[in-house]
Structure formats: C-alpha cells, structure tokens
Design goal:
This protein is α/β, with parallel strands linked by helices. It has helices at about 35-45, 60-70, 85-95, 110-125, 160-165, 170-175, 180, 210-220, 230-240, 255-265; strands at about 10-15, 30, 30-35, 50-55, 75-80, 100-105, 130, 135, 140, 155, 190. Helix content is about 35%, strand content about 15%. It starts with 7 loop residues before the first strand and ends in a 5-residue tail after the last helix.
Length: about 270
C-alpha cells in the first residue's frame, strides 16, 4: 500500500441555503458550529492533512467564507446546484490528485471509517471507493452498507472525477457528484466498504431540526470525548434506546430521490 504519491485532501461541501434546515452547517452543538465538528473529525484521519470547504457563489454563503477566513481554512466558491462542477474546479484549483468527499451535515463522521475507505482505495488501486454503495442483484445501488446514516465517505482519483465532470449529464449526476461513477462500473474500477452488523437505523446526519436535536442529545451524553467513534455512538444508543425515536422517521437519501425525480422530468431514463 503506497500512499506517498497521493495528496489526500478532504473537500467538504457546505452552504447556508439548505431547504429543510436553513443555515444548518453553522447551527450550534454545545456552543460550537456544526462545521467545527465535521472538520475536527475529518482531520483526525491518519491520512488527511488538509480540508477544503467547497461553498457556493450565493450571497448568503459569504458567512461560510468568513468562517473559513476566521479559522484559517482553504475554501472554494462555485456552483450552487452543480456540485460535480464545484468539486472538480475546487480539486483542480488546489491540485488534489486524490479527493475525499465529506458532507458538512455529518458532525460525527468517524475518522477510522475515513481511513478504512482510503486503505481500500490504495490496496486495490481503485478509481473510486465508498461506503454508500452496494452490489444488489449484480448492480451497484445506493446503500448505507450497514453504517449509521451520516458516515458516508467517498474517495476518488482526480482522473475519475474529471471524467465524470466531462461526461455526466443527468441532474442527479451533477448534484450528487459521483452517481455517474457509481452506476457506470464498466468505465471505472470501483469498490465499497461494508459493516458486518447493521447499524443503519441510527441516523447521525443533519437534514432536519429533529436530526439536530438527536445529535445534540448524543453529544450531551458523550461528554468530553474529543473524537467520536461509531462504537461510542452505539454504546450511547444501547444505554438509551429511545433516543433514536427522535429522528428515525426520516427516509434514507430523501435528497437523492428528489434528484432522480428531476432526471425523469428532464427526459432521462434510469
């Protein structure tokens, strides 16, 4: 496993204009912005040395720009809805040859999971590896891969990202960065990482207010732990099983489902 030729940069997408929970990325958890937690967890990876915040050109996202300046963080401003374009131009600007995609609504992203996905990417010389796709009946499909929701990590070479940027046409492929790669396995060497036991009933991503309430409750019970691991979350849930009822009614991948509907309206077939 040779990691010396890779510069591992985590690109974290962040914007203030979430339709379901506006300004969520800077909502406070124990007095600190949620984005603080995402960055801290990500930088606890053994591989990642830099994070870059990829935000938009919208006026409201000047608040994220200011956050980055105040925290001495690299940032990039690009398209609001074409996330694939935003990621590509960001990666190109900062000369990233290996991209780790993290989303800003996952304040408990486990650095060990990040490292395990990266290790698989290196070991198998893959073009793309993730823990949110799974082969079902011979086809790659979106899946939690038994991880708690909010633990998604995607690792891609720049060459793979660039090919997707050039060729992806569907709205879902442009908005969610890597669907073109995931669903064209004949063009790419792709793989996944899956948990043995199913913990996908735990929802650690923040899309709605009840998600934020759940995360705040978890952090209250976790106390002074600086780095959160999946095992810490599972321990809390085992001791407080009613906690998951706070936000377990939200469907998995609601945003992506809406994008697929837009594909149909735009005249694309599945």
């Amino acid at each position: 496993m040779n990691s010396s030729k890779h510069n591992f940069n985590a690109i974290i997408q962040a914007r203030m204009g979430s339709t379901r929970l506006p300004k969520k990325v800077l909502k406070k958890i124990n007095g600190k912005p949620m984005l603080d937690y995402v960055i801290n967890q990500t930088l606890s990876s053994k591989f990642i040395k830099n994070v870059i915040i990829a935000t938009t050109l919208e006026k409201e996202d000047l608040e994220i720009v200011e956050y980055c300046k105040n925290n001495d963080l690299k940032y990039f401003r690009g398209s609001k809805n074409d996330l694939l374009d935003r990621y590509y131009r960001c990666a190109k600007k900062f000369k990233c040859n290996t991209i780790i995609r993290i989303t800003s609504d996952c304040p408990m992203i486990d650095p060990e999971i990040i490292d395990n996905v990266i290790k698989k990417f290196l070991k198998n010389s893959n073009d793309y590896v993730s823990n949110n796709i799974e082969k079902i009946n011979g086809n790659w499909e979106n899946s939690t891969c038994n991880f708690p929701q909010g633990m998604t990590v995607e690792v891609s070479s720049f060459k793979t990202l660039e090919k997707a940027w050039k060729e992806a046409k569907k709205p879902s492929e442009r908005e969610h960065v890597f669907p073109y790669v995931q669903f064209n396995p004949q063009l790419f060497n792709i793989s996944n990482l899956k948990m043995k036991k199913d913990f996908s009933f735990i929802r650690c991503t923040v899309d709605k207010m009840n998600d934020l309430k759940f995360i705040r409750n978890l952090y209250d019970k976790l106390g002074t732990k600086k780095i959160i691991k999946i095992k810490n979350i599972i321990e809390i849930i085992n001791k407080n099983p009613k906690l998951i009822t706070i936000n377990n009614k939200t469907k998995f991948d609601e945003g992506y489902t809406k994008s697929l509907e837009l594909d149909k309206k735009s005249g694309f077939k599945k």
